[in-house]
Amino acid sequence: MSRLLVKGARLLGADASDLLVEDGVIRGAGSLGSERADLTIDADGLVALPGLVDLHVHLREPGREDAETIATGSAAAAAGGFTAVFAMANTSPVTDTAESAERVLDLGRACGLTDVVPVGAVTKALEGAELAELGLMARSRARVRVFSDDGHCVHDGRIMRRALEYIRAFDGVISQHSQDPRLADASACCHEGELSGRLGLPGWPGIAEESIVARDVMLARHTGSRVHVAHVTTAGTVEVIRWAKAQGIDVTAEVTPHHLALTTDLLSGYDPVYKVNPPLRPAEDVDALRAALADGTIDAVATDHAPHARHDKEHAFVDAAFGMLGLETALAVVSDLLVRPGLVGWADVARVMSSAPARIGRLQGHGLPLQVGNPANITLIDPDREVTVDATTSRSLSRNNPWHGRTFRGAVVTTLLRGAVTHTTDRELTTLTESEK
Amino acid sequence: MTKHLISSADLSRDETIAILETAVSMHDLQRREVKKVPTLRGRTVINLFFEDSTRTRSSFEIAGKWMSADTINLSGKGSSTSKGESLRDTARTIDAMSVDALVIRHQASGACHQVAQWVRASVINAGDGMHEHPTQALLDAYTLRTRLGDLDGRHVVLVGDLTHSRVFRSNVITLKTLGARVTVVAPPTLMPSGIGAWSATEGFATGWDLDSVIDGDDPVDAIMMLRVQRERMSGGYFPTAREYTVGYGLTRERLGRLVARNPEVLVMHPGPMNRGLEIAADAADAPQSVVLDQVSAGVAVRMAVLYHLLAGDESARDDAERSVHA
């Protein structure tokens, strides 16, 4: 099919407009009632955003294909409205060479449901000791620009400094998992406070994050390089980032939907579905994160989608795996908890879930305005549809879904990747696209 | 009565006292030549210990055997990583054999709470990580009541590594349930995080200075010294054993001051003791020491717990009472 017409979508939640897509590119916008098309999507009442971009997902392939594959993760991404996802490097083997990065890219392309962009490791095997082949990954077909040891902090100040200096040559960015391993070791799993004291769980104090962020923004200033703070969780970190931005330091930051919505008290029942790294924080931090996202101190929402096989979550809390699913629910959480109360508008959602992450990751062809000439990466959202999350129907292979049973208002209806329907809940459209095949 | 005993908070004041009173009968039984009663005949109690234990496991085993339950000890393989069988699989495998009670000791906080949601059997917490150890708190309360009677208004002081202590967490609950006034003392590094808000909610006092508590306005009825593991020094919790003892050890000199204020003061320790570190040998073996009474109470209290949790219906309980008093 070469011509596709989206009828009556509210672009960024504002005025209704039609969009004509030809060969994967937006060719017309405005009132296009008389245009003929091979496929027409009735988007009356729906909000159209540029395709969502997620800076932070774990797709588990290669290595843990029992928990997630690039194919199942891509399907979950498309269902969540994402047209591009950055796949973290902590797979087995680690994405720390050009070859491994290209393999992730190719597996994603073969699947075709979302653009899978590999993140390269900062250090070999994520060991924090020697730089990985950052330049070769950047020069590869995968064009790696985001580097991260996520899951581990690049805690050695000298390694972090050199990495920041080195990536300037190709406009890279270090996405830092900010966790001082001396202040919060691998056993740390509960926000340090009254609850961790009562439950007898190893505490994960906010200072373990804040002290690394403070160091990193100073290193970014010193090196003139770019640092991105992954999964910000505390009000203190927000203060540091706000200060750094005011100084003109090139720092960006992301927050996860779960840190915007869930609080540490959920751990009182020792349910490992709520075990995530960094941990859920108290309501004061959640409020600060929401405000920081609204005022631009935090640039992006990223899911940190972290699938785990059931048996890896069915251990004692301290022994269970860290992480929770997020791709399919991110937009619903943001819609329900931030857009509906008026904290942010749909144009802000387009910024924090599409244009900013694409810009931070230097990703071409994504996060662009819904204008003539741009690739037709489009997410159509029904802002009023209520959806109750059912973990058992997830496209992900895993079921570690903290939102199971919760009802959100706001749902992704259709996702278009360069004009191709990669996901839809629209029955009519399903029938049409099925008959095409 | 509750089905599981996971936290000391699972027991109301009435339930706590009921268990402690039953334990008195059980303790009488312990002094008889033939100690066995048929109360739990045909019931199966599994002691599932993921962590080494001498006194807790043996006292649960003896308690079950004296009550004629079939008691089996299993050593769970400690899973400190996500490898190996999951806790859920281990628990459900044992539960599938239609056991009546799982007595669980695990190095991870919350493990018993989690298992209780996966199995049909009653779960009894025999110590979970740094969380709780409710039967220890019951046997401590039993020991205190034997000497002091009603605990309402009594002043009990707990000293030591509170951060890592499940004995502290259960004791503070049970002691408050029974109306005692509780003061906990530790260096700031061994105080659990957030203890300020916690102690305010639960109504116990905290302090960093043991001597000011000993010499304070409120005479001490019992002082419970908690074990301090020597590895804590490498974790930077305190500089040296010597410095710890000077600040927080129950030395002969401190015991002397306690006795001078209150000759009936009781010295307690859940064991195993680090003599010379948190407790001087002279204090451990002093006439005020009830450390061995605590051990002795362990079996009776655990019999009482098994009885209240397993001999659930009234007729079974009447039969049990008769057999105990016969």
Can you tell me about this structure?
- The complex is a heterodimer of chains A (437) and B (326).
- With 437 residues, chain A is an alpha/beta fold.
- Chain A has two domains: 3-47 and 375-436, Urease, subunit C, domain 1 (Roll), CATH 2.30.40.10; 50-360, Alpha-Beta Barrel (TIM Barrel), CATH 3.20.20.
- Chain A is built from 13 helices and 18 strands.
- Chain A has helices at 70-79, 98-111, 134-139, 157-166, 194-199, 207-223, 235-246, 257-261, 283-295, 310-313, 330-339, 346-360, 427-436; strands at 3-11, 16-22, 25-30, 39-42, 47-50, 52-57, 82-87, 115-118, 146-147, 173-176, 190-191, 203-204, 227-229, 251-255, 300-301, 378-388, 407-417, 420-424.
- In chain A, strands 1, 2, 3, 4, 5, 16, 17 and 18 form an eight-stranded mixed sheet that branches. In chain A, strands 9-10-13-14-15 form a five-stranded parallel sheet. In chain A, strands 6-7-8 form a three-stranded parallel sheet.
- In chain A, a hairpin with a 2-residue loop joins β17 (407-417) and β18.
- Chain B folds into two domains: 8-133 and 298-325, 3-Layer(aba) Sandwich (Rossmann fold), CATH 3.40.50.1370; 134-294, Aspartate/ornithine carbamoyltransferase (Rossmann fold, 3-Layer(aba) Sandwich).
- In chain B, 43% of the residues lie in helices and 14% in strands.
- Chain B is built from 13 helices and nine strands.
- In chain B, α1 crosses α12 (291-310).
- Chain B is globular, with a radius of gyration of 20 Å.
- In chain B, 49% of the residues are buried.
- The chains are: A alpha/beta (437), B alpha/beta (326).
- At the A-B interface, α5 of A face α3, α4 and α7 of B.
